[in-house]
Specification:
- By secondary structure, the chain is α+β, with helices and mostly antiparallel strands.
- The protein has three helices and five strands.
- The protein has a single domain, classed as Glutamine Phosphoribosylpyrophosphate, subunit 1, domain 1 (4-Layer Sandwich).
- About 35% of the residues lie in helices and about 25% in strands.
- A three-stranded mixed beta sheet has the order 1-2-5, with helices on one face. Strands 3-4 form a two-stranded antiparallel sheet.
- The longest helix has 14 residues, at about 25-35.
Length: about 90
């Protein structure tokens, strides 16, 4: 799956989209959708992105359910399930 992420410059894509004004969540989703659009079959291939902007906003998105991350702030603490592409 690493090659698919490299092919779309995944991390760069997420950062560039945030620079253009997208939220971390939107940027992660768009990066995953770009990977999906370039592959005919993503069966069993999990990929996801997690982003944090300079204001502390967090976003995450993946191809399948099960991509989660830990979040701890002064208001909350716990595991967060990322959004995922329900198409698969």
């Amino acid at each position: 799956m690493g090659e698919a992420i490299i092919r779309v410059a995944g991390s760069h894509t997420v950062v560039e989209l945030m620079r253009q004004g997208f939220s971390p969540q939107e940027a992660c989703q768009k990066a995953v959708e770009r990977i999906i659009s370039k592959h005919k079959d993503m069966t069993g291939l999990q990929c996801g992105f997690l982003a944090l902007d300079k204001y502390g906003n967090v976003g995450a998105y993946s191809t399948y359910n099960g991509f989660n991350y830990a979040l701890k702030t002064h208001k909350e603490e716990g595991m967060i399930d990322a959004g995922f592409n329900r198409k698969w």
